[in-house]
Amino acid sequence: MELHMVLLIAVTLIPMIIAAFAAELIKSVIALLVGSVGLTLVLFNLNAPIAGIFELSVGAGLIAVLFILSVSLTRPLAKEESAERKRQHYRRFYVLPIIILFLGLILYLNKDFWINAFPFTGAQESASFGEVLWGRRGLDLIGQIGIILVGVFGVIVLFRRGKMNE
């Protein structure tokens, strides 16, 4: 792998990890935005400009705006409550890096199994944009649907809390 791709992947993964572990929501949203821009650069380097444009417009644009809007609708915490939440925040994640490394190792060691079990995950000949978008997608749709549902659920919860506090 070339050095610039390793750097771009690092520019993608490091902010995403920060976004997952940040105790403050606005820092998490900004890290998510930076990671999404990094992913856009990776996609452009992999000669996938349409996927890069989608990621830039939806991931770095729309999602970041919706999250910032949602964060702005939340009430600020008292200093004591904020300090207590920060202390307890990282305790929830202490075992997560070990699980991620373990699962990554299992997936890496069994990569031939995954390519044979899910043929759409292996390299394929090029096709038209429409065929790839509607005919050859598989596991990525599950992830995208999950992300959209989490975002919608988060916005609904934030708006519902705002109504209860009034």
Secondary structure layout:
Elements: H1 3-21, H2 25-45, H3 49-72, H4 79-89, H5 96-109, H6 111-117, H7 129-135, H8 139-165
Helix pairs in contact: 1-2, 2-3, 3-8
Task: Report the end-to-end length measured between terminal Cα atoms.
Answer: 55 Å
The proportion of residues forming helix, as a percent range, comes to over 70%
What's the story with the biggest beta sheet? none
Net shape: globular
DSSP strand count = 0
What average pLDDT do the residues reach? Answer: 76
Low-confidence segments, ≥5 residues, pLDDT <50?
none
What is the assembly state of the chains in this entry? single chain
- How large is the share of residues in beta strands? under 5%
Instruction: Encode the helix/strand succession as letters.
Output: HHHHHHHH
Q: State the helix count.
A: 8
Query: What's the alpha carbon Rg, rounded to whole Å?
Result: 19 Å
Q: What structural class do helix, strand and pairing data support?
A: mainly alpha
Keywords summarizing the entry:
mainly alpha, 166 residues, 0% strand, single chain, globular, 8 helices, 78% helix
Provide structural commentary:
With about 170 residues, the chain is mainly α. Among the domains are: about 1-75, no CATH class; about 130-165. The protein is about 80% helix and about 0% strand. The protein has eight helices and no strands. It starts with a helix and ends with a helix. About 10% of the residues are buried. The model has no long low-confidence stretch (mean pLDDT about 75).
